[in-house]
Structures are given as C-alpha cells and as structure tokens.
Amino acid sequence: MSTRSSLRLETVTPATIDAALALRVHPHQERNVSPIVRSLAEAYAYGEAAWPRLIFDGDELVGFLMAFLDLPWDAQKDPADRRSGLWRLNIAAEGQGKGYGRFAVEAVRDELRRRGASQLYVTWAPGDEGPGAFYDRLGFRTTGETSGDQVVGVLDL
Question: How distant is the alpha carbon of residue 77 from its chain centre?
Fold first, then answer.
C-alpha cells in the first residue's frame, strides 16, 4: 500500500491526456462508471462547474476523479437547490483496494470544504457490483433520492 504522502492530484494536461484516456477500471465496474473520455467532454461542456483531476501515486497514474461544483440539482423542481460533490471516480483495475478511492473522496471533501460547502453529494449504480458499500464505509448516507437510475448519497462536511 502506498503512503499518503506519495498520493497527489494533478490537472489533466497535454502531457497526461493519453495516459488518462488509457486508464481502465476493473471489467466488472465498467457498467457502473462512465469512461474518462466522456468525463473530459463533460468537463469541457460544464466549464468551471467541473473539477477533473488525475490521481497519482508517485509517478504512476492510478485514477481519475471529477467533482461538480455548485450545480443546479433539479432546476425544474427547485431552482435554488445547488449542490457540489463527486461526479466520477475511476480507479485503475490494478489499483483497487489500495486506498486510492478513499484518497480521492477525501481530496474532494477537502476541496469542497475549502470552497465553503457543507455537504458532498455522490451518485452510484445500485446493486452488489456497485460502489454502495464503499460509500457507506466512508460515511455517506442515502438521501432517498435518485438521479436517473442512480442512488444519491450525501456526506455532511
């Protein structure tokens, strides 16, 4: 397992884009998380509301995360309901179980706290193969809402 001091986030750059696009999650997780190419397209479309970052352990790329910042949640239902949270989390198949996912969630938590947020939202695909148990272990609670076909969870900061 890596030391916390060897883990860091970096922005996606021309020097790292190919490695980012080549990162693959475990095959059984592919249906639960969008590919990084889609996340980067959404980051482009959402501009400042998207916060994409690569996760490195030393010099090795081990994952990708993208946060959403102050986005309207359901503008038709409540235009004032704006939320921030973890939009995507892709950990390389060979990096599973090494603490990279926890590091990523904690990094988003810290960034949202820095920006003054009081809650961190996340959505996930339900089911045994989904990441629900992972988010439960990190202290997220389900809200009873769904976003599309995904469960909505929240962590109070």
Answer: 25
- Start-to-end Cα distance in the chain: 27
Q: In what order do the strands lie in the sheet with 50-57?
A: 7-10, 50-57, 60-72, 82-91, 119-124, 150-156, 141-147
Backbone angles phi and psi of 31, in degrees to 5:
-80, -10
Question: What are the DSSP E strand ranges found in the chain?
Answer: 7-10, 50-57, 60-72, 82-91, 119-124, 141-147, 150-156
| pLDDT tens profile 41-96 | 999 999 999 999 999 999 999 999 999 999 998 888 898 999 999 999 999 999 99
Q: How far apart are CA 157 and CA 155, in angstroms?
A: 6
